[in-house]
Amino acid sequence: xxxxxxxxxxxxxxxxxxxxxxxxxxxxxxxxxxxxxxxxxxxxxxxxxxxxxxxxxxxxxxxxxxxxxxxxxxxxxxxxxxxxxxxxxxxxxxxxxxxxxxxxxxxxxxxxxxxxxxxxxxxxxxxxxxxxxxxxxxxxxxxxxxxxxxxxxxxxxxxxxxxxxxxxxxxxxxxxxxxxxxxxxxxxxxxxxxxxxxxxxxxxxxxxxxxxxxxxxxxxxxxxxxxxxxxxxxxxxxxxxxxxxxxxxxxxxxxxxxxxxxxxxxxxxxxxxxxxxxxxxxxxxxxxxxxxxxxxxxxxxxxxxxxxxxxxxxxxxxxxxxxxxxxxxxxxxxxxxxxxxxxxxxxxxxxxxxxxxxxxxxxxxxxxxxxxxxxxxxxxxxxxxxxxxxxxxxxxxxxxxxxxxxxxxxxxxxxxxxxxxxxxxxxxxxxxxxxxxxxxxxxxxxxxxxxxxxxxxxxxxxxxxxxxxxxxxxxxxxxxxxxxxxxxxxxxxxxxxxxxxxxxxxxxxxxxxxxxxxxxxxxxxxxxxxxxxxxxxxxxxxxxxxxxxxxxxxxxxxxxxxxxxxxxxxxxxxxxxxxxxxxxxxxxxxxxxxxxxxxxxxx
Length: 603
Prior knowledge:
Helices cover about 35% and strands about 20% of the residues. By secondary structure, it is α+β, with helices and mostly antiparallel strands. Strands 2, 3, 6, 7, 10, 20 and 21 form a seven-stranded mixed beta sheet that branches. It has a five-stranded antiparallel beta sheet with strand order 12-11-25-24-23, sandwiched between helices. Helix 4 packs across helix 5, helix 10 (about 250-265) packs antiparallel against helix 20 and helix 12 crosses helix 15.
């Protein structure tokens, strides 16, 4: 029979065991909370108390590619390996796989000596152990308080991670971003470049930095009092690489155009020259070549004025290249046709006292609207333009881009002048009919001819195709909507007259491309002298056209600033012909299936 006395010790034992079990469960729960559930929070708490080391992880700057995906700018992330000589000479305690300090049989901490550590580092860096030791030993010998010595520069990210995994407390890393431009100066003035600190300084490198800029990450380690990393405490915030910027430029075509414009600029002794190629159906710029072009790998080798894009930062009076705009305006607003005629002397004094001269003396003749373009007569185009009131002509000039931005958003865009119609003086009322008294950019001239070639619809000019972020998101630029500038019938009539400029004018022999119908116009613009007048016998010359004119695919614009050997726009004939021929060949454009219909020049 069990008595109360015998039950009491047993009950106490059971209670004691229950208490122990409850305490044990509480400890286990707390351990799970600390090491599993809220592990990251406790690590962060330790970090906030200063028991940490943080290593910055640098993302790579984004890649710039051409329209076909060929790299134009790439980045490589490298690291400088740094040792603290003062700590290195003391060595470090040996730890096992769990992170515990290893002790010998006598209970003393087993130390790893600096020579042993140097040998381990050398297996990753590719140096000899003696080389690593010497770099640190020499620094320590010169200054026992030395805390900084680079032992290897520009190791790869893989090598950085391997070295970091060694857990050496006196080893640190300096991230170094390196930018490379595989094609050198090809499209250099458009791509731009970055400074030695990685900051973008020019071109799309700067303008599209929001696409290309990486986001830095970090690795945080909790360290013990001796500076050794405590296993399992690493918290990593990954770096995010910059996006891939895709341009509309065709790098192969760009290379050719740069070689060509360099040769032709030297041939005609111009200050500088440029070629712009635009796709008719899209407004995309496929080449924008100019002299001189900077090599982004070494921008310091170029003069400051050669490091940006002159084509995108220069405005000029378009001259005769904008006479077709006057023709389109007269067709739509005055009811004229390509066959409408006016009487044209070589010099005319208008009723308001304005005087207009043709570039060459000639007998008085009756020229058609087509003839006014073919002969590039200022007197004829002034008369056709005067059939429309100034405000309406102003509106058409504006619709064709005069006085407006070109939509590229380029830094350092030039001032564009188009004064309100109610401020035009007597001479300006006529000068605007043949491309004077207002300014445009090269992109705007090309865009005007893209509009004629595209049935009267202007497509926004563009240099950027897309930005693909590191997560795969594709962002396309916000462009202006296509705009109908003139009627399709008007565009076809003006385009045919521009064909006649090539077929019947002075361009016929010099610029003809066998098998292809081509339309276009030359321009010779006076250059302001900075004192209210114009430079004498020095001009900004251009030639712009599209082909095949019966099914237009591409616009080519060539410009020269002050050609000395041949001062008028005839200097552009050679470069235009070669450039257009290369474009048609490069894109394998089929020849025209017919000849240009000839329109009357005189009545």
